[in-house]
Here is the input.
Amino acid sequence: MFIIKLYLYAKPMKKNLITASSFLLILLGFWSPLLAQEAWIGRTTGDLPYIEYSDGVVRLGADKMGFLDTAIRMVVVDSVGDRYKVKLSQNWDCYIPKYFVRRGFAEDPLGEGKFLSGSWHLSAKDNYDVLTVSLPDRLPYRSYQLTEPNKIVVDVFGVNSNTTWITQLRQTKIVKSVYREQVEKDVFRIHIELKGRQNWGYSVGYNNKSLRIAVKHAPQKKGIKNLFIAIDAGHGGTAKGAVSRKGTEEKVYTLKFAKELESYLKKKGVKNVYLTRTDDVDIATTKRVLMLREVKPDLLISLHLNASSRPEVKGVSTYYHHNGSRKVSQHILDEMLKLGLNEFGLIGNFNFLLNSPTEYPNSLVEIAFLSNEEDEKRILDEKFHKQTAERIYRGIVRWLKEVQ
Here is the structure.
């Protein structure tokens, strides 16, 4: 009303005449911030939906908060390019690619403070300890790993604690203790303390409206021979990866290294080895993660070759995202350096999709630089393929001796 009165008052003044178009712009300028804040309810959809901490744009995407299950309740408050901004709680926002959200659900009011946690139940099934937490809806969450002490932390957003009953059965094998904490007014934290030195993997999802956290048991028998190891040869098909000045393609040699590692592991008595690809074919990273979820390995080794715009850069590096994969990545790097390669580093919090799953420890090995002449000579040498396989094997063995 104030703007309309201002317009009528100014109309007779020729020097300060506000045209109809100017008035419309003023009106839109006044209301647009309010319209932008109008929230709506959506639900996650698609394969491997994930949320991000920011709307940053970098080569591997913004820093991922984690994967989510489908049909998770999303309170969308804004549109930012190809992402939605989501209100998780009073103090927490996140971003999600738009193709992971379907809108609607007018029957689901926004509400506030209506979500209360219920009872917990901890038991064991197959090769997992399973914690279920009763909730009134499929609410968003994030999880992270600690190593000292060895534990899993899950934050559920928009929840107030009303948990007065936690049943813990003695049949559990890897979970030592569970307890809850209300860390903010509407952020409910689940603590899961683990036995042993290694987090062997876990999944978070919903069974109807109950949050289900399945924590994988340690392998029943010790030693690398009893480990189920998956090997991922980076790129393939039309995805060539890095290409050297001489035309050497990353996709060709990652497969050679992967097959050599498979052969060496089997030679050393490892019975269960799985390759995500065995030929020069396109397999999307999302599909690789889904494949690995199905086969449930104990460990994933992903093989790549590096490249830089500066030809003098060379060396080996290993990458991990979650803290539970740091030790194996460190041991593999230490062994690879014994081949006389330069150290490019141990890279943590790496945002590559294949490093992001929590279901199993994993390490990505950038064996050497295709863009460096000296490193490329090594990459082309079959003897180096065998040496690399041996060093990765020895790194895994050293890691197992530390954690089993």
Q: What stands out?
A: The first helix runs from residue 2 to 10. Residues 40-103 form a domain with the SH3 type barrels. fold (CATH 2.30.30.40). The two ends are 72 Å apart (CA to CA).
